[in-house]
Write a structure and sequence with these properties.
Length: about 70
């Protein structure tokens, strides 16, 4: 898995978010970890619950993970 360090972004509540870009092989679940309330969220499960059964990939500008 390839890692690409990205800059920090901002959350709606003003918290700073630092993240890394990863290459996304097939069969990958995407998780978000909150350092504020120490919770983990599986975005892949959220997408499946909404009927989106596709693998995650990077958006064309490589700034977001999408389920095309």
């Amino acid at each position: 898995m390839r890692r690409e360090v990205c800059g920090a972004g901002g959350a709606a509540n003003g918290a700073r978010i630092a993240f890394e870009r990863l290459s996304l092989p097939e069969q990958t679940d995407v998780y978000v970890w909150s350092t504020v309330d120490k919770t983990e969220r599986n975005l892949s499960n959220d997408a499946r619950a909404e009927g989106i059964n596709r693998e995650p990939s990077w958006s064309p500008n490589r700034r977001k993970i999408v389920f095309p």
